[in-house]
Design a protein that fits this description.
There is one protein chain. With about 190 residues, the protein is an alpha+beta fold. The protein has a domain of about 80 residues: S16 Ribosomal Protein, Chain: A. It is built from 4 helices and 5 strands, in the order ββββαβααα. The chain has a 5-stranded mixed sheet. Strand 1 and strand 2 form a beta hairpin. The termini are far apart. The mean pLDDT is about 85.
């Protein structure tokens, strides 16, 4: 039986979450497995990886073959580097202290890169939001100026309309008493 380290897909449509498992190579993708090693969530940025480092290293040292994606995840988490360094100890090229020192140095560099990426992403989000708010403020200012211009252009017309309406009312009132006097005269004549 050959053992594979591969992903099992879970989660809903469009939002997968993968479980990293050690399984028989003949079993189905989401079928039986021997051991769960970790979880991989590609929906976050950077991707969230929760890995049992010792179990993954044990399976790799025992000859389990990882899939391409799992190999990339193991490389990202340092399992493959640790395996490589331990083989150097077996050959006598390195000591355990040197292996631990090199691995700790690599791990601190890796954590620094990940934190730098997170900081960069949060800063880029902030600057993008700031730019979006500035553009929105510019658009609002242009709209306000256009509205003021329209109101200023409509104001003299409105004043003229008010004056015309008052003149029309005055002329109607002036005609109305004359018409009423004529109506009264006609009524008296009858």
């Amino acid at each position: 039986m050959s053992v594979r380290l591969r992903l099992q897909r879970h989660g809903r449509k469009g939002q997968p979450i993968f479980t990293i498992v050690a399984t028989d190579s003949r079993s189905r993708r989401d079928g039986r497995f021997i051991e769960k090693i970790g979880q991989y969530n590609p929906n976050t940025n950077p991707a969230t990886i929760d890995l049992d480092f010792d179990a993954a290293l044990r399976w790799i040292n025992n000859g389990a073959q990882p899939s391409e994606t799992v190999r990339a995840i193991l490389r990202y988490k340092g399992v493959m580097l640790r395996k490589h360094l331990e083989e150097g100890v077996k050959k006598g090229a390195l000591t355990e202290e040197q292996v631990q020192e090199r691995f700790d140095q690599w791990l601190s560099d890796k954590i620094g890169k990940i934190e730098g990426k997170k900081d960069h992403l949060s800063k880029s989000k902030e600057t993008e939001m700031r730019k979006r708010l500035e553009k929105e403020a510019e658009v609002n200012a242009k709209r306000e100026e256009a509205l003021k211009a329209r109101l200023a252009a409509a104001e003299p017309v409105a004043e003229e309309a008010v004056e015309a309406a008052t003149e029309a009312e005055a002329s109607v009132e002036a005609e109305a008493p004359a018409e009423s006097a004529e109506a009264a005269a006609e009524a008296a004549a009858e």
